[in-house]
Amino acid sequence: MRYEEFLARRLAVEHGDGFAIDERRINPMLYPFQRAVLAWACEKGRSAVFADCGLGKTPIQLEWARLVCEERGGIVLIVAPLAVAEQTQREGDKFDVPVNLCRRGEDVTLGVNITNYEMLQHFDPGILGGLVLDESSILKSYDGKTRTAIIAFAEQIPFRLACTATPAPNDPAELCNHAEFLGVMTEQEVKALYFTTDGTTNRWRLKGHSHESFYRWLASWSVALRKPSDIGYEDGAFALPDLNIEQVIVEGRNITPGALFTSERIDIGERRAARRASLDARVQAAADLANATDRPFLCWCDLNAESEALAAAIPDAVEVKGSDAPEKKAAALLGFARGEHRVMVSKPSIAGWGMNWQHCADMAFVGLSDSYEQFYQALRRCWRFGQEREVNVHVVTSDAEGPVVANVERKERQAMAMMEQVVRYTADAVRGQSGRQEAVYETEKASGEDWTLYLGDCVEQTRKLPAESVDLSVFSPPFPGMYTYSNSVRDMGNAKGIADMLDHYAYLAPELLRVTLPGRSCFVHLTQYVAHINADGFAGLRDFRGRVIETMETAGWRYYGEITIDKNPQVKAIRTKDRGLLFKTLANDSAHMHVALPDWVLHFRKDGENPKPIRAGVSDKYGNAEGWITQEEWIRWARPVWYAADWAPDGDGIGETDVLNVSVARESADERHICPLQLPVIHRIVKLWSAPGELVFSPFAGIGSEGYESLKLGRRFVGIELKRSYYETACRNLESVVRDRDQLDIFSVEADEDAERTKAMYGYLPGQTVIVKEAEYPEVAARLRESS
Q1: What pLDDT is recorded for position 267?
Q2: Is 372 exposed, middle or buried (0-12, 13-18, 19+ CB in 10 A)?
Q3: With the C-alpha atoms ordered 370, 372, 374, 380, is the resulting torsion angle positive or negative?
Q4: DSSP characters over 409-433
Q5: pLDDT the model gives residue 542
Q6: Total domain count for the chain?
Q7: Pairing relation of β-strands 222-225 and 297-301?
Q8: Rounded average pLDDT over 524-546
Q9: Least CB-packed of 110, 313, 369, 642 within 10 Å?
Q10: Do residues 367 and 499 share a domain?
Q11: What contacts 471, CB < 8 A, 6 or more positions away?
C-alpha cells in the first residue's frame, strides 16, 4: 500500500463508541454524583473510575454493564478479585441487576456476568461486548505476564471500564497500565510523551514541563474522586469516621553486627530479618489485642509464619492462606463478612482487595510490607464510607525494625499529593475530549554552515532528497520494544514489536538506496530484541538483527559486513538488572546465565562502481593530509570487534558513556536522548567510509550525534528528526560544533607589532597563548593569522 495508507491504518485505532443516557434509565438508587459518573462513563465507552473506597464503584459498574447490554445487546463480563464476585452478585440483587456468576466460558449467558481474575483464561473475548475490571489496580500486582494477558484479552472488546481506588499509589507511571488496558495509548507512547528516564529502563519520572499536560490528558479518559464534593456534589452521608493508628513496639533483637542501637536507616533485607527475629513477640502482642475483645477483628500479616502463629494464638480465628483452594478462600472471606468468624487472619495481598467489612472496626498489622498500596487497601476494607464507628488500627513492630510507620506515612503523603493532582484536573472530566492526543505532525527546516536538519517524517523527508546525493548514511533506528520517542504513528519506535516496526522501516530502506551514490555504504546500529517472560511468555531473544538484514536486502542493498560493539557486562547488569548477568544468579543456578549482548553495526553497500574514490590511505607515502587513516588505526579498526574502553587491548576503545548527552550537555535533562549512539563509533565510520567535504546522512538524527561527529571531521551533514524537542536540541548541537570548529587554533603571538597591538586592545602580553574567535574579531584574526 502507499505510505499514506499505511499511516492511516496505524492511526485507525478502533474506539468503542459511547452512547448518551437518558437519566430516567438510570437506577434511582444511585446517588447524584454516582449518576453523573455513570453517564460520563457511558458516553466515553472506554474509561476509568478512580473513586475512593465506599463511594459506590460497585453500583456504578453494575449499572454501566446493564446499560451496555441494553444499548448494544450482548454480554458484559465483570472481572473481580476472589470472593468479591459473590459480593458483587449480592449487590446486583440489591440494585435489580441480575449477575450470572461464572467459572468457565460455557457458564456465560446474555446480560451481566462476573468471574474472578484467576478464571479469565477460560473465557472467549470474542463474544463480549463489554469488560469491567473491578479493583483494576490489581493489574500491577500480578506478574507482568498476567497483566499483558489481560490487556491482550481486552484489545478487541469495544466497551471497557476500569475501577479502583488506588490506580497508582506512589508512581504516576503506573497509570500506563490503565491507559493501555483502555486502548487510549500504549505504555511506550505514554512514557515517550510525558516521562523521561534516569538512564535505565526501570525508573521513570514525569518531565518537568509535562505535569499539567499529563494530568489533563489523564482527566480526558478517567474520573477521580475521594469524596462527592471533588466533582461538585454535596458530600452528605459520605463522611469517614475517625481513624486511630497506633504503633505497638515490642522488644526485638538488634540484627546489625557491632551496633548497640538500631539504625534509623535500615534496608529491606535487614528489616525482614528483624521481623523474623521478633515474630513471637509481635504475634503475642497482636493476639492479646484480638483476644481482649469480643468484637470482630482483622489480623493482617506479611509472612506465612506470622499467619500460622496468629491462627494458633487466637482460638476463634479463621486463617486464609495463599495455598488454600479458591473455593475455601471465598467461603472464609464471605463467612467473615456474614459474621460467621469473629477474627480473620490473612495477608493484604490475598484478602485486601474489594471486600466490604464495615461490620469490623478493629485491626492489627503484624508487621508491614513495603507496599503502601497494600496497607491502604487493607485499611480501607473497614475504614470506608458506611462505617459507623471509629476505626482502630494497631501496627505491631519491633524496635529493631526502624521507623516503619513513619515510612508508611511518607508514602501516604506522596500518594495523596499525586491523587490531589489527578482529582484537581478531573473536576470537569465529564466534558473531556478523546484521550489519545495523537501528536501534531510538524515540518520545518534549519540549516547552518555545512549542515541541514529537517523536522518531520523520515520517510517523507528522505523522499525529497535528490537521488545519489548522499555519500554515507549512518544511524541508529528505534529498537522495537525498548524505547518509544513519541506517540506519533509516524514514529517507527512506536511499534508493537519487530514485525510492526519493520513494516514501517520497509518504506525507508528503498529511499535510502535511492539517495545513496553507487558503491557507497549505509551503516545501521542496533541491538537484539530481548524477550522477557512478563511480556513475551519466554526468556530469550527475538532476531531483530536478521530481520533488518532481510528488509535491507529486499530493498536492494547488499549485506557487506558487520562490526560487533563490545559491552561491559557489569555495567549492563547494573543498568538493566538482567537476571542472566547477575552474580546472584551465578550462585543460585547458572543455567539461567547468558553472556552480555553486544551492539552491532550492520554494513550495507549499494551496487555499482563508486564514482568518487575515498583515498583514505594507509600511510603517509600516499600524500594524505593529517587526520586521515594510518596503518595503525586500520589494524585496530579492521578487527571484527570494537572493544569497550575498559577492555580494549590498545587503549583505543569505545566508551559506553561517550555520547552526545555527556559531551554536549546543553539540552534539558528532560529531553536527553534515551539511547544515543556512542561518538567514537560514529567517528570511525565517518572517517573510514567518507572523505572530507562529503555528505553524511542520518534519517534518525535524534539530538544530532551523527552530525556532530561528521562536522568535526570536516564533512557535511543532513539529518531528519521527528520529535521537535530533539530537533531543536540537535540544531543547537550542530551550531555549537561549527562555532567551535571555526574558532582559531591556539597559537603563540610572536610578531612584536601584532603582539603590542593585541596587548593594547585586549590586554594580552607578548608571547602569551591566545584564542581569537574569527567570527567576532575578523580583522584581528586576519592579522594574527598572517603573523603566525
Answers
A1: 56
A2: buried
A3: positive
A4: HHHHHHHHHHHHHHHHTTTTGGG--
A5: 84
A6: 4
A7: unpaired
A8: 79
A9: 110
A10: no
A11: 516, 517, 520, 612, 690, 691, 694, 695, 696
Residues 594 and 668 occupy one common structural domain? yes
pLDDT tens readout for residues 181-239? 998 888 777 877 777 776 555 567 777 767 777 887 888 888 888 888 888 888 887 88
**Residue 461 and residue 336 share a domain:** no
Query: Is residue 69 domain-shared with residue 158, that is, in the same domain?
Result: yes
pLDDT digits (tens, 9 = 90+) for 298-330: 999 988 999 999 999 999 999 999 888 888 888
Range of the domain at 321: 243-402
Same domain, 655 and 762: no
442 compared with 488, residue with greater pLDDT: 442
Q: Which residue do the cell numbers 531473544 mark?
A: 541
The answer on 728 and 755 residing in a single domain is: no
How distant, in Å, are the alpha carbons of 221, 230, 363, 398 from that of 285? 46, 40, 12, 11
Q: Where does the pLDDT of residue 743 fall: very low under 50, low under 70, confident under 90, or very high at 90 and above?
A: low
Spatial neighbors of 147 by CB under 8 A, at least 6 apart, are 139, 140, 177, 534
Q: Which of 374, 402, 430 is the C-terminal boundary of a domain? A: 402
In a domain, 2, yes or no: no
CA distance 374 to 164: 13
Q: Is 410 part of any domain?
A: no
Mean per-residue pLDDT, 731-742: 84
CA 614, CA 6: separation in Å to the nearest integer? 39
C-alpha cell at position 145: 505476564
607 in any annotated domain = yes
CA distance 397 to 399: 7
Q: Please write the tens of the pLDDT for every residue from 65-117.
A: 999 999 887 899 999 988 788 889 999 999 999 999 998 999 999 999 999 88
